[in-house]
Amino acid sequence: xxxxxxxxxxxxxxxxxxxxxxxxxxxxxxxxxxxxxxxxxxxxxxxxxxxxxxxxxxxxxxxxxxxxxxxxxxxxxxxxxxxxxxxxxxxxxxxxxxxxxxxxxxxxxxxxxxxxxxxxxxxxxxxxxxxxxxxxxxxxxxxxxxxxxxxxxxxxxxxxxxxxxxxxxxxxxxxxxxxxxxxxxxxxxxxxxxxxxxxxxxxxxxxxxxxxxxxxxxxxxxxxxxxxxxxxxxxx
Length: 236
Fold this sequence. Notes:
- The chain is an alpha/beta fold.
- The chain folds into two domains: 2-75, Beta-grasp domain (Ubiquitin-like (UB roll), Roll), CATH 3.10.20; 88-235, no CATH class.
- The protein has eight helices and twelve strands.
- The strands form three sheets. A five-stranded mixed sheet has the order 2-1-5-3-4, with no helix packed on it. The chain has a four-stranded parallel sheet with strand order 7-6-8-9, with helices on both faces.
- Helix 4 links the parallel strand 8 (129-132) and strand 9.
- Helix 2 crosses helix 5 (154-165).
- The mean pLDDT is 94.
């Protein structure tokens, strides 16, 4: 039996069992074990792990933990200046969050019937960030980019993702279809007139259409509510 002392960043405590929150704990284990495996075994996905130290030396997650080691685990640092625009894939419980991200103009794939293997394949093949509340998904060995959402509320989840990935610099609002994620195109009023309600015909002149699903968009009452959500991001 080997024993190592683990100490976790306070920002990670919400992921730990209650009896392991605090000033650290001793972890007993057998055989060769990587620091990644031991951290994930107490409930923290590797996507949430930042700098890790063993005996005050920075180590990779492949580091094999030794008897008597003192392990310090920091949380991932939010991205402030990403050089590449983040792209996302969301699991089947996050439809409202997907709509909010598409509202910002973020490339955000979502279907309510993705299975786990589809999520893993698309995330890896397309270099997408997997957003989920299921920590088990983020522990899969193929997943490199991901975020475990804390809130159950879609608007707070939205703010979480904006903070985590520094999305304010990437905002291009109202350029994507909320329904299917495709980029919108301008539409002439006369071309969509037969699909508009009487008051919409009367009060609005500017329209966009999704070439993929044929959804029509205009700056109705929903636009003001969505613009308010975007304006509130300035305070994050």
